[in-house]
Each structure stands twice: as structure tokens, then as C-alpha cells.
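Lab notebook, bench 4. Still working through the backlog of constructs that have no structural model yet. Next entry is a single chain of 224 residues. Request: give me the C-alpha cells for it.
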Amino acid sequence: MFIWFLLAFQGGTINTGGFLTVHRFVSHVTGFATLAGAAGAKANWVEMLGMLLVPVSYITGAMFSAWCVERRRIHNQTPLYSLVFSFMLISLSFIAIGGSMGIFGGFGEPLNLTRDYLLLFVLSFTCGLQNAVISSASGAVIRTTHLTGLVTDLGIGIVRILSIDKGHKHEVFANWTRLGIFISFFFGSFVSALIYSKVQFFGFYLPVCICLFVALRLRAIKKM
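Model written out:
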């Protein structure tokens, strides 16, 4: 459970980094579909295509994660969690190093350049990787890069507890887990916003370190 909370914290740092860098929430697929539709209505075809490619990047990350984890589980093979986290680590390191070297331009500049879309694609791909691997590991119960579904489940879970006289211990545990993920995501956003405001692109080293810790932790557990 600690890993889930830590990755929710990381989800907050990634989304905050994307928003402060290019003014977009990188795991908010609904928002990108809306922006794509609005851009298309104005005949801004380049922007529309860019907005549509962000959720495509997310789906690509989720598919790669599922190929390494879910597909292998279906075929009774050992899931390759370490490979997924390795790709996450590479993607986040690319953003941190590239940003600090000026590859993505100025921190907080308007979203209107090819390099800004590249940053969005990489961050969204990373969110797809993370969300899919945790979703697979938890049986599609836990998601750590966005909160809409989680808050919906929390609301339903509260009503279930109030409606059931006995046997709701599992639901109570699930709701506390959902609340913990929500709080972890919030603190990840809060803490990282303070860091990004001081060091800008260097702030992406925070999710890099978290990802590295989780990867090493999972590797150690595997060897036990």
C-alpha cells in the first residue's frame, strides 16, 4: 500500500510539472479531448492534432505496460514490473535532463511550439505506463495518476458502507485506501509546486528519484 501512496504522490508531481511547464494536466484525457474538439471547431487543425496525440501517447504507455504485465499474467508468466518502471525512469530523466539543458525552452512558456508538445507526449506516455501497471497489479481497483474515477468510487463506497449492516470491512479498507491516494496526490502536487517554483525543470528530478526508489524496492522484494 505504501507503494501505491508513493506513486500517487508521484502522479501529483508529474501533473503539476506538466501544468506549470506548458499549462496542461498531462493525465487528463477528458480535457485533451475537449481541447481537440474546441480547436477543430476553430479550424485550428495543428492544435487539434496535437491535443489528440496526447491521449494517444497515454494509451501507448498503457498498452506497453499491459504488454509487460497483464499479457504475461494471462499467459502465466512473471510480470515485468521492473521493465515498466525502467521506461518510466528513462522518460522522466529525459524530461529532467532535457529541460535543464534548454531542450524544452523556457519553463512556463505558452503551449505553441513543437518542443512543448514533445514534453506533453512524454509525460502523458509516462502517466499511461504508471496508471496501467498499478491498475493491473491491483485488479483495476487502484489508479494513481488521476482522481476522477477514484473519487467516484469513494462516493459509491461511502454509500455502500451506510447501506450495509454487516460485512463491510473490505469496503471500509478500500475507502481508506482511496482517501489515502487522494491525499498523497494532493501532497505530491503541493510539495512539487513549491519545488518547481524554485528550481523549474530540475524539479522533475523528484519523480525521477521516486521512480528509482520504487523500481529498486520492487527488485528487492522480487529477490526475497
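Notes after review: The two ends are 18 Å apart (CA to CA). Residues 2-223 form one domain. Flag for follow-up if needed.
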